[in-house]
Amino acid sequence: MKRNLVDSASDEQVGREERHDIYVRAHAPSPQKGAWHRSNVEKWPSSALIFDCETTIDHKQKLTFGSFRRCELVDSEFRCVEEGLFFANNLRRKDRKTLERYVSDHLNVPATETFPPQLKLTLLSRERFLRQFFWGAVRRGDLIVGFNLPFDLSRLAVKYANAQKSGWSLALSERTSRKTGKKEVDIERPRIVITSINSKTAFIKLSSKWRSEEWPNESRFLDLRTLTFALRNVPFGLASACDAFGVKGKISHSPTGKITPKEIAYCREDVGATTRLLNATKKEFEQHPIELRPDQTYSPASIAKAYLDAMNIARPKTRFKVANKIHGIAMQAYYGGRAECRIRRTTVPVILTDFTSQYPTVNALLGNWKVLTARDVRFPPCTEAVRKLLRDIGLKTAFRKAFWENLSFFALVKPDNDILPVRTVYDGRTRNIGLNYLTSRVPIWYAGPDIVASALLTGKPPKIIKAFRMQASGQQKNLSPTHLAGSVRIDPKKDDFFVSVIEQRSKLKATNKPVSNFLKVVGNSGSYGLFVQVDPDTLQKSRKLSVFSGTRKLSQTSRYVEKTGPWYFPPIASLITAGGRLLLAMLEQCITDAGGTYLFCDTDSMCIVGSRHGGRVAVVTENESERQATIKALSIQQVKTIVRQFNQLNPYDRNHVPNLLKIEDINFVDSNSTKPQRRLLGYGIAAKRYALFEMTGDGISVAKPSGHGLGYLFAPKKNKSGAGTDDEADDKMPDWVFEAWDWLIRQELRAKPKAPTWVDLPAMMRMTMTSPNVMRNNRPGWLAPYNFFLFPIVSDLGGYPPGVSRTTCNLIVPFEADRKKWKKLRGLNLWDGRFYRLATQHDAKGDTVVPDSFRVILRRYLLHPEVKSLAPTGSPCVSNSKGLLGRMAIQASLIVPIGKESDRSWEHGEDPGMLDFKLKEYGRRKNLFVADIADRKQWKKVGVRQLMKLSGLTQKPIYAILEGKPVRRHTLTVFKQAIGRIVT
Asked: By C-alpha distance, which of 586, 585, 457, 591 is closest to 10?
């Protein structure tokens, strides 16, 4: 077996191991109440109330008016029986007159579909609309429908407060106080509690009722933004959702905040589009023979879980009596997908490959369907069997299906320069997961596929202390067949769900694309995430918790708990992601054996350095003035040979799924695999930060850019395609990301870079008040739930006004769709209540804030290091590192159990949870910090005695700082301040 090209300097690297704390996931079971069975109600009630609100376009975004339709279910469709308008109680008389004239105009007829027809639009105040329509619909259990419903509900609120679990409690109705004669919240009307899970999903319910007998039916709130996402796994806006579901969309219009006939027609048509979309989603939803209500469908995983229930498959965490110790071991072995950049800031020819439905494939290879449908699951010891399996391991063995059936085990490993997933702080600030050399005096539990991957990549088996395997026996009784999307039959007694879904998806791709797309969604959503679903929660009072990590059991008191999902089963979840990493390791080794390397890998894909005929490729090291090295580019025929090799593991019918490893369509002209191969080039910066492009003369055409690390920014320009507003969203990469990468690549290649027209605009994030935790410090009363606004990225290099710093500046500006106005916007600092102007430089008035421009953001983006790897010289990868990177060697210090990691979806789009996230550590003192690696290298040059003299600290804390051990914040601060004068 050839030694990996990227690890050719590993002996030298091992001599310079860095000490790091290693973070491992823990199993912290939270005592939960028994399952709550909802009342037996119809999937679709007989009536629905659909509404939409219009607001002012200033920072307060207060209700001006709205439109509604009351619909009845007739012949499987919701049909309008009454339409009307409502307006804010304090609306100006002039605006009210405009509404009155509009409804009096005989041309503005209601869109009712009943006889006798409604002759005139109903016009009501907000309070009367609530009293006559809204509360009655809630009391009856009608569907309350909207698109982005939390925003519209919050516009109706007269008062709001913090609810439990970081939610909002909205009071919608007022009454006159008998004591004071003033307006007060009507306590006889329940509050509406909204808890946002992410930017697409929120739980909406009524609070406890003052008189429960008056509210006998369960409240039913349906946000079509959530339902459309659950059905298609695409984050739609209203216009794009209507287009995707084949119904007439909304009017293309940018709201002005005024009340005019045009604005009224726009609002009415939004409700009309929502009604049409409701009927279209209802038709599609009813194709699924599952016991799931639309208002309880929160994601694609909700549908996947419902299908598992429809097949009468028992939920693992209730059927299988598995000890917490086993779950603790499995969670310690759990890591997410593998993502890394291997060649940095160097253009190379590439061939992009990826695995067909990686997680369903891994489930099929490991036999996880047999586990899910088993009568019983046990975990017997298998230490000697695992040691024997690893002694005989080789790449040829790994390509046998029978070999994979033996990989459902967990082993306690004493790492000694083994290549394993390592979760640690690589850059001194943020935790990340890398695949690196690991040495540890303390043994750590890993899943079988990860251990095999290490043996393949290093050529030696890890040291196994002990091991056990997951062993299924028998089959559950009462398993029932079902029909996916009403057409694809699955019999859980005979069929492997994961195999059947992917086969049928490929089979129907040409003849029934909607069902094929659904099978892709349900196949992926039912293959992984539900088995490791953990929902963090904060209790009102602390509770004693038992925490399991490996064989270690901790007991501590905490308000932080993790509620496990209904299909939570860590042994399966850990094996799935480990299996995905094993496939990548096998592909990496195949490339290495052929003499090649890769540009990057990302969960289920690997971008191989290659071209049509292959050859040698020059790569620079550190900077262009230093020596160059050459690497081998594989030919397309060599890549095809590797593809054929993986077909030995193909669990699918080759007539439907010909290749397990695919050469992606993007490698061919017009992304059409029937056309000739094109010369595709790749450029990488760091994990998930890359672009693929073509080059002809001075021309550059970006074919596939990564939006990772850019998606949190509000787009500086609208997309050319699509007439939607900035509220619209879909799964397509924004135009500006293509332009950004085009500019970055041209700069690097010195190929006549032309800056985009928007590059000097201030960089902004679009934020939404989805939770009280967002902007919770000094938040003014007018900043209501679900208000949206822009959040300028203030420059750390003199961007703050005099007397204001990063910690005392929380600047927000009203949302503005017109980018030309961004440079002149005025914002409010929530800390001091003062208004500041955005500017490119400060003036004498002291009322300006200077944000970073997109130019600055992109410059930093280009310099982002791949902190999980080493530069070609063997030193840590820094901003100017270029060329072929190597694996870092890690020496484990402390093993720290942690809770659920951050949801990094904010890196792709709007998610203000990024501002409030804190990682839960178990069993370790709080307020301990580790110094940055680069700083420690410089400090070591000074010498311990000199450091003691300068800082006044004793030998023990100084050694702890230099070795990367955690110390108190005060200790580290004193140390840095003392030596900062001499270390540059």
From this structure: 457
Mean pLDDT in the chain?
A: 88
Angle at 887 between CA 883 and CA 892, to 5 degrees: 150
- CA–CA separation, 586 vs 452, rounded Å? 10
Compute the distance between CA of residue 191 and CA of residue 175 in angstroms, rounded to an integer: 14
Neighbour-count burial for 306-323, b at 16+ CB within 10 Å, e otherwise:
bbbbbbebbbbbebbebe
Q: To the nearest 5 percent, what fractions of the chain are helix, strand and coil?
A: 30, 30, 40
As a whole number of Å, the end-to-end CA separation of the chain is 45
- At the second CATH level, the architecture of 925-984 is Orthogonal Bundle (1.10)
Determine the residue type at 683: Y
Q: Is there a contact between 425 and 496 (Cβ–Cβ < 8 Å)?
A: no
Instruction: Identify the band that residue 915 occupies on the pLDDT scale cut at 50, 70 and 90.
Output: very low
| Cα distances (Å, whole numbers) of residue 451 to 226, 575, 653 | 39, 11, 29
Q: Among 76-80, 352-356, 720-724, which is the least confidently predicted range?
A: 720-724
pLDDT band at 5 (very low <50, low <70, confident <90, very high): very low
Vertex 704 angle, CA 702 and 710, to 5°: 95
Q: State how far the Cα of 926 lies from the Cα of 484, in Å rounded to an integer.
A: 49
Note whether 465 and 364 are within 8 A (CB): no
Q: How far apart are alpha carbons 371 and 369 in whole angstroms?
A: 5
Q: What is the DSSP letter of 732?
A: S
Residue spans of the domains in the chain: they are 47-153+215-273, 764-852, 925-984
Instruction: Match 């300068």 to its residue by tokens.
Output: 950
The token duo for 631 is: 């690497």
The answer to whether the 47-153+215-273 and 925-984 domains have the same CATH topology is no
* 263/54 Cα distance (integer angstroms): 9
* Contact between residue 922 and residue 556 where contact means Cβ atoms under 8 Å apart: yes
Query: In this predicted structure, what is the pLDDT of residue 914?
Result: 34
Please, which pLDDT band fits residue 918 given cuts at 50, 70 and 90?
low
The amino acid sitting at 885 is L
Structure token digits, residue 953: 């600290």
- Supply the pTM of this predicted model: 0.89
Measured between alpha carbons, how far is 785 from 87 in angstroms, rounded to an integer?
Answer: 19
CATH number of 47-153+215-273: 3.30.420
pLDDT tops 90 at residue 962: no
DSSP annotation of 36: P
Q: Pairing relation of β-strands 18-25 and 788-792?
A: unpaired
Give the pLDDT score at 760.
Answer: 94
Q: Residue 202: which of 267, 242, 153 has the closest Cα?
A: 153
pLDDT confidence of residue 925 = 55
